[in-house]
């Protein structure tokens, strides 16, 4: 029986498992993931390529293609505007269509491939509004112009008639944000929204998303591999590796006191200005090895083959995600059997 969802929780993922069946075998892309996002909160989901972040986002939206993909276990509980709760894993497709783009918006990773090149951007925003709000084309077109103005595109009356190729990368990403917010969703999933942008435009997009979150009051699941971005946007962080969540914490806590060896490796690999102040270059840390293939089912900790603290027990059983500290509703949890060791325990206090 599904446990009740607290009133302030907009999304709760519980025990989610996603598999892909192919000629080479079964890929275990997501393995027992648990996530919670509260009203008005930004949760950053971080991890390197191949960790399962984008599969998580597609599963939440009900966009995993079947075949080859299958959601084999778990729940994806979404709170709707009327207060009711829907499980996106088991809901009928007609119900999912009323939620996608309407109550959950999504900003995809690469706008040039996400936007249709043969239609003006105004048509693409208006289509979403007509589909979910049942308004006329004229009213939907007006809403498209309004949203372009909201996301900071100058001369929206003219820009709304332009095609994606006529816009810069930053402009196209603003169009994607406008499309995601056009129906006033309560939750937005942003999948690497700044990856293809230069640093200046990236900063503008992040500022825009913070402003819009304040104005619209939405929750955000922000998916990225860039820890520098996480500092700017997130209230909490969930670190994902090998299809599992290995650590979750409030953002400041995670950066100050990382507990999982993978999290510490990610933070150690980030360049720091103070490393070059002495005038002598310092080689960046690199986590040894590569992410294990999802085709190989791991019997123990998925990070064991790359961890410098591994012991035999790490290879024999999957560690549980344990709560190591809490402050009100915010907890610090990690998936490592050695977190009680003196040096790690001291670091995470």
UniProtKB/TrEMBL annotation:
Keywords: ATP-binding, Cell membrane, Membrane, Nucleotide-binding, Transport. One of its GO terms (biological process) is peptide transport. The keyword Cell membrane applies. InterPro entries: AAA+_ATPase (IPR003593), ABC_Ni/Peptide_Import (IPR050388), ABC_transporter-like_ATP-bd (IPR003439), ABC_transporter-like_CS (IPR017871), Oligopep_ABC_C (IPR013563), P-loop_NTPase (IPR027417). It is found in: Cell inner membrane. GO terms for molecular function: ATP binding; ATP hydrolysis activity. SUPFAM superfamilies: P-loop containing nucleoside triphosphate hydrolases. Pfam families: ABC_tran, oligo_HPY. It is a peripheral membrane protein. Residues 13-267 form the ABC transporter domain. Belongs to the ABC transporter superfamily. This is Oligopeptide/dipeptide ABC transporter ATP-binding protein. It comes from Novispirillum itersonii (Aquaspirillum itersonii).
């Amino acid at each position: 029986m599904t446990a009740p969802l607290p009133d302030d929780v907009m999304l709760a993922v519980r025990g989610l498992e996603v598999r892909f069946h192919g000629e080479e075998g079964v890929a275990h892309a997501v393995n027992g993931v648990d996530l919670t996002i509260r009203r008005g909160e930004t949760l950053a989901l971080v991890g390197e390529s191949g960790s399962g972040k984008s599969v998580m986002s597609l599963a939440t939206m009900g966009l995993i293609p079947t075949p080859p993909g299958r959601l084999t276990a778990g729940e994806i509980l979404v709170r709707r505007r009327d207060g009711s709760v829907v499980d996106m894993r088991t809901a009928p497709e007609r119900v999912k269509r009323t939620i996608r783009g309407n109550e959950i918006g999504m900003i995809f990773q690469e706008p040039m491939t996400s936007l249709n090149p043969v239609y003006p951007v105004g048509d693409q925003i208006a289509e979403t509004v007509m589909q979910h709000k049942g308004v006329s084309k004229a009213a939907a077109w007006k809403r498209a112009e309004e949203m372009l103005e909201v996301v900071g595109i100058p001369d929206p009356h003219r820009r709304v008639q332009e095609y994606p190729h006529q816009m810069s990368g930053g402009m196209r990403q603003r169009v994607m944000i406008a499309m995601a917010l056009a129906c006033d969703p309560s939750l937005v999933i942003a999948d690497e929204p700044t990856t293809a942008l230069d640093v200046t435009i990236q900063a503008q997009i992040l500022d825009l998303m913070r402003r819009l979150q304040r104005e619209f009051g939405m929750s955000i699941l922000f998916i990225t591999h860039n820890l520098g971005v996480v500092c700017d946007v997130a209230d909490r962080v969930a670190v994902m590796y090998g299809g599992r969540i290995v650590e979750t914490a409030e953002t400041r806590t995670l950066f100050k006191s990382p507990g999982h060896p993978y999290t510490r490796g990610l933070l150690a690999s980030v360049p720091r200005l103070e490393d070059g102040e002495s005038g002598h270059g310092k080689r960046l840390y690199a986590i040894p090895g590569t992410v294990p293939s999802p085709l190989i089912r791991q019997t123990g900790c998925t990070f064991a083959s790359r961890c410098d603290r591994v012991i035999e027990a790490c290879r024999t059983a999957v560690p549980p995600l344990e709560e190591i500290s809490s402050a009100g509703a915010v907890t610090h949890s990690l998936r490592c059997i050695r977190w009680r060791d003196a040096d790690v325990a001291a670091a995470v206090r």
